[in-house]
Amino acid sequence: MVTSRGFPRFLALVAAIAATMLFITSAQAQDKRDFYKVGVITSLSGAMVYGGNVTRRGYDLWEQQVNKNGGIEVGGKKYKVKLVYADAQSNPQSAADAVQRMISRDNVDFILGPYASSSTLGAAPITERYKVPMITGSAESPSIWARHFKYTFGAVPAVDRTAGEIMTVLAKQRPEIKTVSIIGMNDPFSKSTAEALRDGAKKAGFKVLSYDITPPDADMTPLISKARSLKPDVLAVGGEPNNHIAVVKAMESLSYKPKGLVMHYGVNTPDFQKAVGKAANYVIGATVWDPSLPYKDAVFGTAQNYVKLSETRYNVKPDYTQAASSAAGEAFAAALNTADLPPPLSAADKVKLVDALENVRIKTFYGTIGFEKQGPWYHDNAELKPIVTQMIDGKQVLVGPGDLGTQKIVYPQPSGQ
Amino acid sequence: MSDLQAKDLHTGYGRVEIVSGVSISAALGQVTCIFGPNGSGKSTLLKAVAGAQPTWRGDVVYRDTSIRDQPTEERILGGIATMPQGGSVFADLSVDENLRIGGHTIRDRTQLRQRVAEIYDRFPALAKKRRARGSDLSGGQQMLVSVGQLLMTDPQFLLLDEPSAGLAPSVVKEVFQMLRELKEAGKGILMVEQNVRDALQIADQIYILVQGKLVYHAPRADIPDLKTLMKVYMQV
Amino acid sequence: MDLLLQTLVNGILIGGVYLIITLGFNLAFGVLGVIDFAVGEWVMLGGFTGYWLNHYLGLDPLLFLPVTFVVFVIVGALVYPMLARLLKGRQHARLLMVFVFTFGLSTLLKGGALTAWGFNQRAMDSFFSARSVELAGVYMPQIRLVAFFFGVLITVAVAWMLYRTRFGLSVRAVAQDEGKARLMGVNTNRVAALVYALYAGLTGMAGVLIGVIYTVTPQMGVQYTIFAFFIAVLAGLGYVPGVLLAALLLGLIQAFVAVYIGSAYSLLIVFLSLYLILLVAPRGILNRGRA
Ligand SMILES: Nc1ncnc2c1ncn2[C@@H]1O[C@H](COP(=O)(O)OP(=O)(O)OP(=O)(O)O)[C@@H](O)[C@H]1O
Ligand SMILES: [Mg+2]
Questions:
Q1: Are residues A275 and C142, on separate chains, in Cβ contact within 8 Å?
Q2: Are A221 and C141 contacting, i.e. CB atoms less than 8 angstroms apart?
Q3: B100 lies in a domain?
Q4: Largest CA distance in chain A
Q5: How far is the centre of ligand 2, averaged over its atoms, from the C-alpha of B35 (Å)?
Q6: Cis bond before residue A294 (omega within 30° of 0)
Q7: Angle at B114 between CA B110 and CA B117, to 5 degrees
């Protein structure tokens, strides 16, 4: 291939390539940024694009507010943040690919993680391998924390610490409830939710008449018919908002309304409200955050103010996932500040950042954030308590536990069978 | 006299030319035969004359007008009907449906029904099988259906691609007898055949096609017997 | 007992949904000999057509079925010439080209819909939504009954067209052997164009019904593409009457597996049964399609 006359030229080419590579690597080493490069990995396409955009709004709002305040304060100086995005495409494998590309190409300092537990489970092993810290503002499946990823943190308490609370509150307020049927979608988050609902129901002394896990795309009428034939007092569903819509539509078409309907997550989203209309009324759910709670911080102000910021920019009322995503950024800021780590972060800095995150305990508009250092919920936010809600006339009303509730759960719902 | 002609006809598939500058003439009341080895382009030539295959260069002339740009439908309406190699029976259609699709260009329903009835009169064996699927027929019956389809439009010119292929000897005889009768009724027949011996019995003009080119043409009268023709055939 | 009957009814009615999406698809496959991977996107666009008409005009979405049909027939007639150009290519390359084309079209339509309408789920209600007919303790959602009878109706209409009309005869002839059909004077290109337009029209209408039964989102298409393909294989590729049986069978399998075995296994069992059926009858359950 290489002729004798061509050989010197070949050598010259090799030398040129080597020089270029050297230049690039040294340029990278000297990458003297005065801002933080923050990777955002979330689903911007595919089935979870709805939730992906919820998290994205949360992350973007944090960027907006932090930069408005001049940036993150480290060692007396303020550094702005710049977000770079990668699309998890609603599936774990793409999430892993996207995060890998983002880490190696963009050399990000830290990562704001995906929507949904499935994508988080795809991305976490990669951040682990490259030792880049990540906080997810959404993932709620306990299966993530059970795996003890050192570099992955979560801003929302795992669903097995929140969904079960619904059953406890139901049992306390409405002792006439005896039986429950449970339907869960077959994805990590929804399945964990269904399990938590089941375990919570058993603990609360309810009899679980049926427990079915279904592919989220499946037609829901067969399982609704099955549940109806068992005549449970409460039907509980573990799923994403779009699954809840499918379930409610199937129930309506069969003229079935249980006495109590539990849908842990998403019943206050505009899509759900608009899609199912009046049928959204009296659905019981859980949250870890509500704008009416008296939380506040320096970046967003009060919880109420956070709602205003979101409405101004997106014309959307934030839910707890969006709030948690914004708060995730605040946790990073606090850790960078205490560990004194200006940008760009070296590999050693990133390890230090993880140590700092483990010791963070800050009060935000979203509530307190502090991560578990051991146990089954390793690195998950341990500070927030679940709040049980019920949709009443288009509003999410807090119904428990204890003093957090502003009124008792409406049960049985009007014309519930 | 020539009623149907290909003039310096070129055609092929994709970019590959298969038939290169072939000229043939066929007349009413005559049987014109094209012989040639496998793959020489006989079927392709016939399809070009029938309009199922575009003519790249050259012309197809029928009764002194060029029909090279006419779609098959118009050529059928003009009186040229074709039986493709292997017959034209649709395996999943019934005999009745096969005949009706053979008369696809007849738009008048009553006329179509009448034509089908006429074919049944002509081939009583088919009348008993009108509900049978094409694939359930014997080879001989399928040939009858194919001929029936061909005659549905009462054409002046018949293009036939190897009508005797794969048939039992007794059926082959019947087929050639039928063709002879059609010829005597004044129809023009342009036919591709491998069965040179039987074809020679009814042929009026002989063409030999090799690798897309015409290598031989003679009136039947100039060929004393099969042996002479076979000699020519072997040489080319 | 009630649950058994109810599950039977649920299964049949799910089958009705499958029926309306697969009918045109299988017909088009029969004639064109290619798989249109954009089938789910036609369903999606049909759903959105119904949704927007309902949104702006406020009338019952089912009233827009005829308009949707006409719109999609026109769309199909406009798309077909592009497909036809690819179909004229050489045999094996052309299948690949058509695959690339329809796959690209599907991606484009989905992406376009996402950009135009966002990722939100949208629901539309008909007079028949949220109503059911009760018969001896068995509940039949009215909207699904409507969809089912609509599906049966168009199946009968398409079957009538295929088996009782001159055009239908030429469609079947083209589906079996395009070359022979052309020699009989059938304008095969026109037949294929009309069939594709008909398929687009039927599938657009299916989208309206599906949108009313479930919801519409730009991403709803994929699953219907899979189901359409699935049922078409089961029915016998290109064999239209088989669609009715295959759709019902699939609906019943899904319903019964969900209730009596476990919904999580439904896809697995559906695939397994498809595999077994094709092992026994490679040309579909009625053994009349293409192998
Ligand atoms: N549809 C087609 N596409 C591409 N090539 C074709 C097609 N049909 C035929 N051919 C090729 O054209 C050439 C001539 O074929 P044709 O069928 O015309 O030959 P033939 O003389 O009729 O042969 P036979 O005696 O075997 O019937 C062959 O090489 C064949 O492979
Ligand atoms: Mg031939």
A1: no
A2: yes
A3: no
A4: 94
A5: 10
A6: no
A7: 140
* Residue B211, SS3 per DSSP: coil
Answer yes or no: is the ipTM higher than 0.90: yes
Domain that includes residue B59, residue range:
4-88+139-235
Task: Name the closest residue on chain A to residue C224, using Cα atoms.
Answer: A217
Q: Mind listing the pLDDT tens digit for each residue in A341-382? A: 999 999 999 999 999 999 999 999 999 999 999 999 999 999
Torsion of CA A396, A401, A407, A411, to 10 degrees: 80
Q: What is the pLDDT of residue A12?
A: 62
Give the distance (Å) from ligand 2 centre to CA of residue B42: 5
Q: Token digits for A78?
A: 């303020």
How far B84 CA sits from the closest chain C CA (Å)?
A: 7
pLDDT at A184: 96
pLDDT of residue A270: 77
What pLDDT is attached to residue A1?
37
Q: C2-280 is classed in which CATH architecture?
A: Orthogonal Bundle (1.10)
Instruction: Give me the total of CB pairs closer than 8 Å, taking one residue from chain A and one from chain C.
Output: 112
Q: What is the pTM of this model?
A: 0.86
Substitution target in C3, C119, C125 with the highest count of A β-carbons within 10 Å is: C119
With the most atoms of ligand 1 within 8 angstroms of its CB, the residue from B15, B35, B44 to mutate is: B44
Average pLDDT, rounded, for chain A: 91
**Residue limits of CATH 3.40.50.2300 in chain A:** 35-158+292-370, 163-287+386-404
State both tokens at A119.
């994508």
Cα distances (angstroms) measured from residue A28 to each of A22, A83, A132, B4, B113: 10, 19, 17, 80, 85
**Which position has the higher pLDDT, A16 or A205?**
A205
In this structure, chain A runs to a length of 417
Helix (H, G, I), strand (E, B) or coil at C35: coil
Amino acid, single-letter form, for residue A395: K
Interface list for chain B against chain C, based on CB atoms closer than 8 Å:
14, 47, 50, 52, 71-73, 76-77, 82-84, 88, 90-93, 97, 100-102, 104-105, 107, 149
Interval B191-217 mean pLDDT: 94
Token duo for residue A196: 């938590």
Helix, strand, coil content of chain A in percent (nearest 5): 45, 20, 35
CATH number, domain A35-158+292-370: 3.40.50.2300
Q: For residues A194 and B111, give the distance between their C-alpha atoms in angstroms, rounded to a whole number.
A: 70
Ligand 1 atom 29, closest CA: B39
Out of A46, A218, A271, the one facing C120 most closely (by C-beta) is: A271
Each domain of chain C, given as residue ranges in start order, spans: 2-280
Q: What is the mean pLDDT of residues C9-33?
A: 92
- The CATH H-level superfamily of A163-287+386-404 is Response regulator (3.40.50.2300)
Q: How many whole angstroms from A129 Cα to the centroid of ligand 1?
A: 61
d(CA C208, CA A59): 36
CA-to-CA distance for A102 and A99, rounded, in angstroms?
Answer: 5
- For ligand 1, atom 17, the nearest C-alpha belongs to B43
Q: Is the pLDDT of residue A207 over 60?
A: yes
Indicate which atom in ligand 1 lies nearest the CA of residue C91: 3
CATH code for position B52: 3.40.50.300
E-only strand ranges, A206-263: 207-214, 234-238, 260-263
Interface partners of chain C (CB pairs < 8 Å, 3 or more) are: A, B
pLDDT per residue as tens digits for the range A274-294: 888 888 899 999 999 999 999
Q: Are strands B4-13 and B16-26 parallel, antiparallel or unpaired?
A: antiparallel
- Check CB contact under 8 Å for C184 and B84: no
Q: Is the CB of B86 under 6 A from ligand 1?
A: no
Domain annotation covers residue B104: no
Q: Could you give the number of structural domains in chain B?
A: 1
Residues of C with CB under 8 A from a CB of B: 90, 166, 169-170, 172-173, 176-177, 179-187, 288
